[in-house]
Structure to design on (365 residues):
């Protein structure tokens, strides 16, 4: 549908093509007749085998440098652990979380008189948990911190530094089960009615109709989109590291079509910022907040992530199988998806009022 419109528009201009910028690959002038000018000698540093470290290598060097500057018990073991996380191809946020949790624990036991890791007991972990609770740390954050800490302890046990006794009876924190927050249908219409920019409408409707995480949408490149199939391929989720395909509805396809007609067609990212980079999360957050405020809904605490919650709730109310919704959302297990079934379930509501009609009818006889 929108794909055909795009093809018709493309006949008037080459909107779908991405001209290769050959000049970016050569130092010389490609149009010169002199071969020496056209293809200058390679960098001598490159010929000698030297190369520029990539982003991951630079990040690893920076973290190792941070650890070297610490004065905590088990500093060398901590360095080995972080390098182990890099070798296991963990994501940057995972590695940073592991380092933060381990450092906080090591600093805590240092204050309480431990100079090494070999003498640690369960009571030391309990004391650390109580300290973090007294500091006002939320149950969810504390659970994440404990998971990271026990992963560190498991690594130390595998290395023979610590006893496995600490892993036999772990400390568990009970977390409150909170419902995801979705946007009411009337509020959804009010927000969409305020959007007056082509790019913003495409961006917000895609989040609302695909259930993508905001980071996944911002990393979407033009080659990841199929207009004909009305789908976006997420080759690697920023959170789970797994790929999936999401689909977008007709209204999102129309908004996307209008944006594709207007955007800079030589840029890589679907929603681009300056210098061919993706638009930032902060920029999108400010854009969405402005529309929420304009709709008079700032008091309801509606966030960007509520669009994903609304997507899931709407599909469940339309009777989509929960197993299908799990795959569309990119959840690892079904329990994550079941939270939405507890939020708003039309089937459950209908069954309740059907039963109540029978009860009330029997009382009126």
């Amino acid at each position: 549908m929108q794909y055909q419109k795009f093809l018709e528009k493309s006949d008037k201009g080459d909107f779908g093509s991405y001209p290769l910028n050959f000049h970016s690959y050569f130092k010389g002038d490609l149009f010169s007749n002199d071969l020496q000018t056209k293809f200058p000698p390679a960098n001598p540093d490159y010929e000698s085998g030297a190369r520029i470290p990539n982003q991951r290598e630079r990040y690893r060097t920076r973290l190792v440098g941070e650890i070297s500057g610490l004065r905590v018990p088990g500093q060398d073991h901590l360095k080995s652990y972080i390098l182990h996380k890099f070798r296991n191809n963990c994501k940057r946020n995972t590695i940073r979380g592991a380092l933060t949790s381990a450092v906080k624990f090591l600093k805590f036991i240092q204050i309480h008189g431990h100079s090494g890791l070999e003498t640690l007991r369960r009571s030391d972990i309990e004391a650390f948990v109580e300290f973090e609770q007294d500091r006002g740390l939320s149950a969810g954050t504390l659970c994440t911190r404990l998971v990271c800490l026990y992963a560190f302890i498991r690594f130390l046990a595998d290395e023979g530094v610590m006893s496995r006794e600490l892993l036999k009876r772990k400390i568990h924190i009970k977390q409150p089960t909170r419902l995801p927050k979705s946007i009411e249908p009337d509020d959804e219409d009010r927000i969409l009615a305020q959007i007056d920019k082509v790019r913003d409408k495409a961006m917000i409707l895609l989040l609302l109709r695909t259930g993508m995480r905001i980071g996944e949408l911002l990393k979407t490149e033009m080659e990841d989109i199929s207009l004909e199939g009305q789908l976006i391929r997420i080759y690697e989720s920023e959170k789970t590291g797994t790929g999936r395909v999401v689909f977008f509805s007709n209204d999102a396809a129309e908004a996307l079509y209008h944006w594709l007609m207007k955007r800079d067609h030589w840029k890589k990212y679907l929603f681009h910022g300056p210098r061919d980079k993706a638009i930032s999360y902060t920029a999108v957050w400010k854009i969405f907040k402005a529309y929420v405020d304009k709709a008079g809904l700032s008091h309801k605490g509606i966030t960007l992530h509520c669009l994903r919650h609304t997507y899931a709730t709407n599909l469940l109310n339309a009777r989509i199988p929960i197993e299908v919704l799990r795959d569309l959302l990119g959840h690892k297990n079904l329990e994550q998806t079941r939270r939405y079934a507890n939020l708003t379930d039309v089937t459950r509501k209908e069954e309740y009022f059907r039963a109540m009609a029978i009860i009330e009818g029997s009382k009126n006889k």
In short: The first helix runs from residue 2 to 10. The domain at 55-168 is CATH 1.10.150 (DNA polymerase; domain 1). Residues 290 and 298 are 9 Å apart (CA to CA).
